[in-house]
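Data deposition worksheet. Section B asks for the primary sequence of the deposited chain exactly as it was used as input, without tags or linkers unless they were present during the calculation. Section C holds the resulting structure in token form. Section D is free text for depositor observations; keep each observation to a single sentence. Incomplete worksheets are returned to the depositor.
Section A, Depositor: J.P.
Section B:
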Amino acid sequence: MRAFRIPITAIITALALSGCMRTTGPVAVAQQGDLDQMTYGQPDSPPPRTVAVDSGGGAIGALRAAFAAAPRTAPAPAVVAAPVAYAEPARYDAAYHLDAGDKLRVVVYGQEGLTNTYAIDAGGAITMPLIGSVRARGRTTAGLAAEISAKLRAGFIREPSVAVEIEAYRPFFILGEVAAPGQYPYVPNMTVESAVAIAGGFSPRARRDSVTVTHTDASGTSRFVVPPGSPISPGDTVLVSERWF
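Section C:
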């Protein structure tokens, strides 16, 4: 019996020693929250904690080191659109007095047959359906709208709503020492200088320091000698004189 026990003991000892000499590869164990941090990254969070079961190398350890060394990308800056500036439309002078040559846009709300563009004729009036001739010369746009409303209310429309605006001013005239004298459309806020520019500029013999402006309104006709920067009105006549030397 003793002869059989010695070999069996040797075999068991050898098997035990071979099991103890086997080494286990390194294993990294991380908490669930740490895995989320390693995957998505948080700029202000500390690096994930790793508990190593074995201090040896391995594929998992290399992967963990690659995650720790990977650069974190900062979030893209928000793009803010620049504000847009819009220019305000030109406003007509409410005190402007109408006269022959002005073109008006008359709007009668709810009445498409009356809404139209009307030109003031040489007699100073416009002619509309239903109400016929309406005097416009010397009136403001608000005054003309009130007159049209009164005429429509007298047997045609119970409560008319009327608006009048200037579609085009009557032209101005420029004569004398300019390149192309004649009649031109008036532009709001026009001056003598801009009128001369529209007419092609001064001629070589023009007197450039002053011009004569003729203005006609309800009170009559007046003439003024003014510098080039002076404003002019619709219907004015600008005369550029010849210099003497």
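Section D:
Residues 15-41, 47-56, 77-92 have pLDDT under 50 and may be disordered.
The longest helix spans residues 2-21.
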